[in-house]
Amino acid sequence: MSATGTRKIPFGPTGLGTSAARPRPQSTPTGDHRAMLAEVARAGYPQQIQRLTEGFSPGVDEGDVESEARALVAELQELGVECDQRLARYLCTFRRLVLPVEDDALGLDLSRTYLYPTIIDDACGRRHSEVFRTLGTGMMKGIVTPARHRAAADSSLTPNSAAVDYMFNRIAEHCDADFLSTHKAFFYQSFIGIMFESQYAADASDQIDTEYVRNRTGFCEYYFSSLALAYDCLDFTGNLAFWGAALGRMVDYLNDLNDLISCYKEFLEGDFPANTVFRRAAHRGTSFLDAYAWTFDRGMSAYRRILELANPEQRPHVERYLKGYIHWHLTCGRYRWEEFSRLATT
């Protein structure tokens, strides 16, 4: 397919920002939940979100995606980590959509930074102990005798942590030590959110602070700061004022748009009460529609503010990322966006 054409992005078992897809005690989809979603559709929110991508129809070269995905799957196998080929294609497609670069070696390294965290994120969902294991191998190097347990000082103790070390070694070829240490901090902080999110109740009746936890899931700062690896005008240490102003709003944007778009998928999967919009409504005592509207407004405010913060040289890259993120979700079969939109007529 021509790189200028459009395509429906394939979907795999997981994907970027899908922390809500982790195995958890699931609820049964109910008519009440469907009615909540239908009310959102009738209010026109699917159309408003869709309009954000008008005129944005980049294509990806399927042959290039396949080649890149195969290379990443092969290296993961050498490291002892299993990866479904579909998942690799899924994330390589995403990276090419939001973060296009001309350097193939850099492109591969960037795709790796999106694929590896997703695999480890899923492993943490399947085995809660993997959260502490991942944090241990990353945070406890050099700690020889912690009380009551052996230090996870050697990343070779687990294939996943060896893969993380390999990922950051490849990233190190494209950045200075100051950014690398910051980028690693963004990566590991997300496991704090994963840790607490695993304790969500199936009916959202728990008292866990949804806003605190959501801000620390999804690897938002880690993923967004990857623009600093790709484009000189967004170099991290040379543009600290921009990053300090934009990162918080990008966390809102990535999380809010993911939550808005994911809610129908999560309804179908029996995971609707884990959606942040639903939890926000339940904990604030408001309607789902009001919580959806609040989340949409904050996401759009973040979108506008991020573009305002970018200078003329930075703006095209930042806008591509913002629009590509939505386009990917809306064209990915995983999210069943067309079905969600049609709820307005039911």
Structure notes:
The chain is 62% helix and 0% strand. It is mainly alpha-helical and 346 residues long. The chain has one domain (27-345): Farnesyl Diphosphate Synthase, CATH 1.10.600.10. Helix 5 (104-126) runs antiparallel to helix 7 (159-171), helix 12 runs parallel beside helix 15 (315-331) and helix 13 (276-284) crosses helix 14. The protein is globular and about 55 Å long. The two termini are 36 Å apart.
Provide keyphrases for this structure:
346 residues, Farnesyl Diphosphate Synthase, single chain, disordered N terminus, mainly alpha
Low-confidence stretches: 1-23
- Give a short account of the largest sheet: none
Proper CATH architecture: Orthogonal Bundle
The name CATH uses for the topology is Farnesyl Diphosphate Synthase
- Secondary structure: number of strands: 0
Mean model confidence by pLDDT:
87
CATH uppermost class: Mainly Alpha
Rounded to an integer, what's the Rg over CA atoms? Answer: 20 Å
Tell me what portion of residues adopts beta-strand conformation. Answer: under 5%
The CATH homologous superfamily is named Farnesyl Diphosphate Synthase
Helix content: 55-70%
Shape: globular
Termini separation: 36 Å
Number of H- or I-type helical stretches: 16
Q: Please indicate the count of domains.
A: 1
Order of helices and strands: HHHHHHHHHHHHHHHH
How would you briefly describe this protein structure?
The chain has 346 residues and is mainly α.
